[in-house]
Structures are given as C-alpha cells and as structure tokens.
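Bench notes, afternoon.
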Amino acid sequence: MDLGLFEQITRGFRFPREWDARYPGQNQTAADAPPGYITFFEDFFLQDNVWLPATEFMAHILHYYGFHIS
C-alpha cells in the first residue's frame, strides 16, 4: 500500500482523528507498529469489506472462529 491509498482508506472509512492512524515510515514493516498501535492491511478494507468500528455481531463471529480483529 502506498501513502495515497492509506489516505484514501482513512478518509473513505472515516477513521476518527483520535485513532491517530499512521502510515509506516521508510524501511518499517507491519511488525514495527509502535506500542499501543495495531496493523491493518488494505485487503481487510478493500476486499473483505470490513468497516470500523465493527459491529458486535462481527466481534462474535471472529471470536467463534478464534480470530482477533487486529
């Protein structure tokens, strides 16, 4: 994902400012998220059609299958 797509996703999915969404710096990977942050992948939004905040139903389904939203 490039910075333009990141900005498109954060605007299009209306990420609240208090989430402080950050695009990774140069030479950073998904594993380099600072403490207190989580990593989202573009496919999560663009192909899986997941919106945040997720519904309680979505949380129950993820829990049932042993997945966590992050």
